[in-house]
Specification:
globular; single chain; putative n-type atp pyrophosphatase, domain 2; alpha/beta; Rossmann fold; 2 domains; four-stranded antiparallel beta sheet
Length: 226
């Protein structure tokens, strides 16, 4: 089956791509102007162009104002374009627990006659985080949106200690270790299917009450580290 991946450049879409059974023929990205989008990952989504180059797949990218429910029309447009250009028969999502997101994506796929593939659905957070480490993904925290998470987490790479801290926060503060409640966002700088890694050249931090975002201003492709 030919598949397109709903691709944000974060850990979930990348891991879903790794797990999906089928032929991945393109990536599909919706770039929201609304940083509080109900549907779409926003921190550093502009890097998907560079990530697509590292992966070696075409990218279908559309913009949206990010208005609740209306942004679904833009998502449908992007998926429809991928179907027309690349003949996709199904769409891969990185949904883990969000019924809001998964139900709306499934509805669009059904209307377009496409399968909706959710490789991560209802998987244990610990299982997903451990798999990212085992498979050699390089993932950094690029956004935090719930106390006690703060700017000190930004730019930190996902490792065993980070997994331990995230699991502890689930117990102490009810925070989803994989950020399904919007508590954290991530950016993938390297993955098993990248031919090159992403190297961050310039970055800034934007901070306001109860949230902070690492903004990657400039990045480039570099040789993979041995």
């Amino acid at each position: 089956m030919k598949l397109g991946v709903l691709f944000s450049g974060g850990k979930d879409s990348c891991l879903a791509m790794r797990r999906a059974e089928g032929k991945i023929v393109c990536l599909i990205t919706v770039v929201s102007k609304n940083p509080e989008s109900y549907m779409f990952h926003t921190p550093n989504v502009h890097l998907t162009k560079l990530q697509a180059e590292a992966i070696g797949l075409p990218l279908v990218s559309v913009n949206t104002e990010g208005k609740k429910e209306e942004e679904l029309k833009d998502l449908a447009e992007a998926i429809s374009e991928a179907k027309e250009k690349y003949g996709i028969e199904g769409v891969v999502t990185g949904a883990v627990e969000s019924v809001y997101q998964s139900s709306r994506i499934a509805k669009i796929c059904d209307e377009l006659g496409l399968a909706c593939v959710n490789p991560l659905w209802k998987k244990e957070p610990r299982e997903l985080l451990d798999e990212l480490l085992k498979e050699g993904f390089k993932v950094i925290i690029s956004g935090v949106f719930a106390p006690p998470l703060d700017r000190s987490w930004l730019g930190k790479e996902l490792d065993k200690e980070m997994v331990r801290k995230l699991l502890a926060l689930k117990e102490s503060h009810g925070i989803s270790p994989v950020g399904e409640g919007g508590e954290i966002e991530t950016t993938v700088l390297d993955a098993p299917f990248f031919s090159k890694r992403i190297e961050v050249v310039q970055k800034d931090v934007f901070e306001e009450k109860n949230s902070a975002v690492l903004i990657i201003r400039k990045a480039r492709l570099a040789k993979k580290e041995i």
